[in-house]
Design a protein that fits this description.
The protein is mostly helical and 238 residues long. Helices cover 63% and strands 0% of the residues. It has 9 helices and no strands. Helix 3 packs parallel to helix 5 and helix 8 runs antiparallel to helix 9. 23% of the residues are buried. The N terminus is likely disordered.
Amino acid sequence: MLKTLGSRIFRRAGQDGGEPLISPRTDLTMGDVDTQSFQTHPPSSPLPTIEDYGQASLLVLQQLLMDRSVEKAEGEQQRTLEVWRGMNAVGGEQGASYPPSWIKEFQQMVQQAATRHFPSLPPEGSTQQQQQELHTYLHHIQEVLTGELLRLAPLLREACLLAAVIDSYHVHTMSQLERLLQRELDSDQLFTLLRWTLKTYLSKMLSHPDAAAAPDLLLLTDWLQRARTKALHSTQVM
């Protein structure tokens, strides 16, 4: 796709059969797309469309989301995101936003990243070893959420995309907590789950300045109510 985008931004030979004003480069990278299109002489062949820039920006974001070793966007990648944001007047005009279809693709990409980065659920059971595995699982979730928030906040805050990432990770976190709650957990496991959700996830992670305004807390409050009821019931039947 990017090679196609790159090839479209060069001028073909003029009507007089002369050499093109811009010679095609063979060393184009992902981030070269937008810089090549801003040349002094307008090309006669079509420039990349807004849809082309949308797809180029999704490729940049895919790399950022999927590869946890990426600490920052490279200069050309950053410019691709800046041009895309400017095309949609995001962060400028009140009420401006990215196209709904593009946002949907981006959200699906974030969900795939969350699924990829989250640890697998611990095995079921109520032995002491499985209790420890639950502790380990929740700790790994905390590491993923904290690490991704710290890594992605500087990259996506300016692009006005951070809230969508936080919300998607919140939904994924709650889906994992819901799957745990549906299990046959003993009282120790239930209270471990409740303590982590209240004291770590809610008090520490969702209170982060970048996270405070984004997630839908109705998912959390509904889960907490059902978890408390189940935990109290488990103590009564002991």
